[in-house]
TrEMBL record:
Listed GO MF terms: metallopeptidase activity
Region (Disordered): 253-295
Amino acid composition bias (Basic and acidic residues), ranges on this chain: 259-280
Gene source species: Hymenoscyphus albidus
Protein's name in the database: Peptidase metallopeptidase domain-containing protein
Amino acid sequence: MTPQTSQQTSPSCLSETDSALCIVVGNPNPCNKEIPRWKPGIYIPYTVDRSSFLAITGAQAKYAEATFKQAVKQWNESKIGVTFDFVEEENDAVFTLIYGGEHNNVFAKAFFPSNQDLNRILVYSVALRPEYIMWLEWVFLHELGHVLGLRHEFALKSEKGGVRFPGEEGADGQVGNTPTAPRSVMEYYHRSESATQHPIPGVQPNLMDYPEGKLPLKDIEETRRFYKLESGTTYENRPIVDYNPQKAQVYQPTAIRKATKDAEEGIDRQREKAERDKAWLQKHGKERRKPKDVD
């Protein structure tokens, strides 16, 4: 994703080489006719490469990580069909958040579902500048949309490989955005009123606005529908291909690990108490009743 300057007519995102009543899906590689997504129901472990953030201030690094986790939380709470779960070790992660330093005017870069051993979401220095940082959570929501298999809304016109899902018409008979339709997190914004309310140094009014707030409800609804389709379904002559990386297959979700740990600790406490009871009986004899308050 690239911030817009007076010489640009639209921002861009490096996750694709070149928003909404419907979502847009499909492989950005025009030679690949599949529609990639993660296997529904899986947990996708991710981590943060904190060493990469040493190049910036500690406050910036902490803010970037906290904001990314907040974006993850928004997608997770939407219950779209897969769950992101934080892990400390990169060896356990399907993807990692990395600080990428300078990269022209690019905000961030993500990836699409695959079985690659370790993927990356890169956030670049421009996203952390004072004039842009207010949109950081929206940038991360957008990049996580790519991770889930979503394309740019304008991919239908300017890029190949995108198909609209579910492809139904809106109430006014039009497919896609209308003046009153809710916008998509996968779309870029061009609203002069917000640009006026939040002036950006060096950026012309009426050129750019990344809204603050939560995921649009329509994105949530259509992504849920996308992930409810059966594996192998062909949509507009393109097969939906599910990816389930090896790390996701062997991963034990945090909640399950915690429940298992709590159960094991409970068993250990019971075992220790039984040993103490046994020792007390051996010392005082079976004819005497053990006081209730003796452990």
